[in-house]
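User: Teach me something about this protein's shape.
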Amino acid sequence: MIVLLPIFLLGALLNYPAFKVTGQISKKFVNRGDFRGSLQLATGLLVFLLFYSISGILAFALYGKWMLMLTVLLSYPSGLFSLKYAVRFYRLKSNWKFIKIFTRDAEGISELSKLREEIIEELEKGKATYVENQSKDSNSL
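Assistant: First, the predicted structure itself:
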């Protein structure tokens, strides 16, 4: 994961500001949750186009046409990669927390496993009783 960190940083640098601006605009103008997604899509199209244009112009002004081409070609894919990288990072972080808890408190985890099995048994008994009662009710009709 460390090897891919520069690509993540590039994607975050080029896409995170536009992502945050899009979210802030939708929160400011829409109170209902069912309209928020539509507004985020519409504003995201405009905001990302604006941010990509600004980053391309800056890259051209500072470094020339080759950097402009690289910026334009890498902005969107690096943003997608950055998003997936962040999701994987947080998933890995939560897995490490679970492993840490599991190794530190093995007795507590085994107790939770026993309780889980007891709950599953109770649910299975309830399910069997329900199915039995349903079949009796349908036979009596």
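Now, about its shape. The radius of gyration is 26 Å. The chain has a mean pLDDT of 87. If you'd like, I can walk through any region in more detail.
User: That's plenty for now, thanks!
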